[in-house]
Design the sequence.
């Protein structure tokens, strides 16, 4: 019986690696092309977003002229405080001005007509602002809170500030 050796005794000549390298480079170009055509830069990054309770989240700043609107009720007197941003013509500087409107009580009750007029004036400055904050006093009745929130919201057909945040008492 004849036995063959699996390995030859002497070393072979070195194989040509150029076709293998060319195949690897071609495969890399094809994979890069496939990656660029099937994905976007937005999908390549992953963010783990978890939302907490509404009190943990800060609202995004409003891009319009009126940045913040707060209606405060202390006793029967109302105060409307709002922040207005203005930019000069050359856009070199931006200034923020806080405006306060004091609305005294009428016959021992909050003056809802004056509140509506003040909020319409604020709405005319920046119609795109939808958020307002309401801070009633601890002694305010539920009926008064609802009535003031109705005025802040505005009429059904054209609401003034449909997103109202009800705050706790400041002190």
Sequence:
């Amino acid at each position: 019986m004849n036995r063959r050796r699996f390995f030859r005794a002497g070393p072979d000549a070195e194989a040509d690696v150029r076709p293998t390298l060319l195949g690897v480079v071609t495969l890399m170009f094809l994979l890069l092309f496939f990656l660029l055509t099937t994905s976007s830069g937005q999908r390549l990054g992953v963010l783990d977003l978890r939302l907490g309770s509404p009190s943990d989240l800060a609202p995004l700043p409003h891009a319009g002229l009126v940045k913040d609107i707060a209606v405060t009720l202390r006793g029967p007197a109302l105060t409307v405080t709002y922040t207005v941003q203005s930019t000069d013509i050359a856009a070199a500087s931006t200034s923020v001005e806080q405006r306060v409107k004091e609305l005294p009580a009428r016959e021992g009750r909050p003056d809802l007509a004056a509140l509506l007029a003040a909020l319409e004036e604020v709405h005319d400055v920046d119609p795109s602002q939808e958020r307002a904050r309401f801070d009633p006093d601890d002694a305010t009745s539920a009926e008064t809170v609802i009535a003031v929130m109705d005025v802040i919201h505005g009429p059904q057909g054209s609401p003034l500030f449909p997103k109202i945040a009800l705050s706790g008492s400041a002190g």
